Description:
By secondary structure, the protein is an alpha/beta fold. The chain has one domain (6-188): Rossmann fold (3-Layer(aba) Sandwich). Helices cover 43% and strands 24% of the residues. It has seven helices and nine strands. A hairpin with a 2-residue loop joins strand 5 (70-77) and strand 6 (80-85). Helix 1 (17-27) crosses helix 7 (173-188) and helix 5 runs antiparallel to helix 6 (144-158). It starts with a strand and ends with a helix. The relative contact order is 0.23. Bound molecules: guanosine-5'-monophosphate. Guanosine-5'-monophosphate (5GP) binds next to strand 5 and strand 6.
Amino acid sequence: xxxxxxxxxxxxxxxxxxxxxxxxxxxxxxxxxxxxxxxxxxxxxxxxxxxxxxxxxxxxxxxxxxxxxxxxxxxxxxxxxxxxxxxxxxxxxxxxxxxxxxxxxxxxxxxxxxxxxxxxxxxxxxxxxxxxxxxxxxxxxxxxxxxxxxxxxxxxxxxxxxxxxxxxxxxxxxxxxxxxxxxxxxxxxx
Length: 190
Ligand code: 5GP
């Protein structure tokens, strides 16, 4: 694993991370590949198994934990597991590409501290928690209870932003996409 690069993008849910991630994958098609995480939540909207997540049962997930199949895993929300499969990362490296991990704050810090990889971590900062709440409600994919849980988690996550290699303020999506792409270009060519 030593010497290999990977990029981690983290943000409170609703901070525009998915849009920025899609932009990056389009902008660097030869260099980056999305790391598809394993997850035990239900698919939302038109999410596809194997493309957005490897959806699986909690029993299967726990089996993989025992087998040390994960680079990192977290119970991101109460009762819901999410994890980065070591095989997923390895097959991206085999293609000569850099994996792009969209994972939560704890997972990002874990990878930075515990793995001998050259990891570049990016934190996307929402303009405010009020704006984040508005965006989540506008998205319309979550219940009010789940939105409140996400906002609470976001406030907690924001307190870790100093631990990241770079912080991008997403008060203007186009600017945030451009700044993130510039930071990544510097990292992959370093
Ligand atoms: P969502 O349910 O909205 O797709 O994702 C919820 C959160 O889980 C997001 O913050 C996302 O970045 C995080 N997440 C997704 N995959 C992983 C993973 O493999 N590991 C960790 N630690 N977090 C993940």
